[in-house]
Amino acid sequence: MASRLPSKSILRAVAGLVAATALAAAGWVSAQPAPPIQVVTPETAKPGAPKPSPAEQAPPINVPAPAPIAVPPISEKEVAAAPPTPDAKPSGAPVRRARYDVAVIEALDKVTAESLRFEAAVGRPIRFKSLVFTVKACERSAPDEAVDDSIAYLTVDSQPRAAPGRPALAPRQAFKGWMYASSPGLHPLEHPVYDAWLITCRAAAPPIASAR
Predict the structure, then answer these.
(1) How crowded is residue 199: how many other Cβ atoms within 10 Å of its Cβ?
(2) Over the stretch 75-102, which tens digit does the pLDDT of each residue have?
(3) Is the distance from CB of 210 to CB of 177 less than 8 angstroms?
(4) How confident is residue 1, by pLDDT bands cut at 50, 70 and 90?
């Protein structure tokens, strides 16, 4: 008995069914939603956090490097000298004032207008009426000072002369401090009757040898 072959209509129907099945499968694949894009955050960047797949990473951007900037050379005139260090000390020690053993003083009696210029050796009291002057030190300014001056440290005691047959009164200090020859009003003697100021400082004259 001879086998029957399928007719052409059946073959066409099977071919159409296969084509429809293939088209339906293609439409189902295309209708699947696209995978979400993963955003990298500090949390996801921690070790152990899931990393995005290579397909989801953005391609690297090639940024051209900037051209180098040409800096003009610095001339020697533009380089400032370094300031001196704070530890730097001036060369040479300051010159000390010269000391003398005699002070030249002028005193004035404001009642009688009588004035007297006299010499007072250092450490030796000298009297002018009721005032007793005692010079403690007398010096002149050093060569490196701006003003050439004479300065004396002295005390002035008020002690009237004792009357005959009566004991001497106790002295009363009228002045103690420095007197300046160039500025007599800087530390003046404040006394109702007398006034005094420094003239200069000088060395004592050497003793004159007596002729034999």
Answers:
(1) 17
(2) 655 544 545 544 545 556 677 888 999 9
(3) no
(4) very low
Q: Specify whether the CB–CB gap between 144 and 95 falls below 8 A.
A: yes
Tokens of 146: 């701006």
Instruction: Please give the torsion angle defined by the CA atoms of residues 94, 95, 96 and 98, in that order, rounded to the nearest 10 degrees.
Output: -170
Contact in structure between 189 and 175 (CB atoms under 8 Å): yes
Task: At 162, list the tokens.
Answer: 């004792």
The CA distance from 98 to 147, in Å, is: 14
* Secondary structure percentages of the chain, helix, strand, coil, to 5: 10, 30, 60
Cβ atoms within 10 Å, residue 103: 29
What is residue 122's DSSP assignment? B
Report the length, in residues, of the chain.
Answer: 212
159-204 pLDDT tens trace: 888 778 788 788 899 999 999 999 888 888 989 999 999 999 999 8
Please give the C-alpha separations between residue 111 and each of 4, 65, 158, in angstroms, as whole numbers: 174, 100, 16
CB 116 within 8 A of CB 107: yes
